[in-house]
Amino acid sequence: MEGLLSKSNLPSTLFKTSAVLNLVSVPGHIVFGRQKLEPFLEDYSYNPALGVSIAAARVGWSHMTVSIITAAALNWHWSSSGGPELVHEQIIFWSVLVSGAYVGAKYWREGEYAPLACLWVAPLCSLVAWVLNQRKDLDS
User: Fold this and answer.
1) Per the structure, how many domains does the chain have?
2) How confident is the model at residue 8 (pLDDT cuts 50, 70, 90)?
3) Is 0.85 surpassed by the pTM of this model?
């Protein structure tokens, strides 16, 4: 039996790594929001003119939690299917990659590195896995 990091298993292992990185990022995302976002928003909750903005920030933060879980589920699926095949899967794949690069750069500039696990590392693992599977398909 071949090991997890053998050439033939590497793409699957990378997709699973991406899934795990995303999944373990969820509790950190929730804690980060409670420790850093909520106190900031509370400081401005006295201003009724900011009500919609504060609600949008909270909703957006919560929605991102769901997006991270979705990325984990898709990557786990791709570990056995070989990667995004359908157009909507590819749109999600590239959206996660591009938005992760953009948002991750903002965290990097602020010296906040923990979010980069799901914003940069996980999508790069997925990209490498997908490219390796594409090359494998061309070689067959």
Assistant:
1) 1
2) confident
3) yes
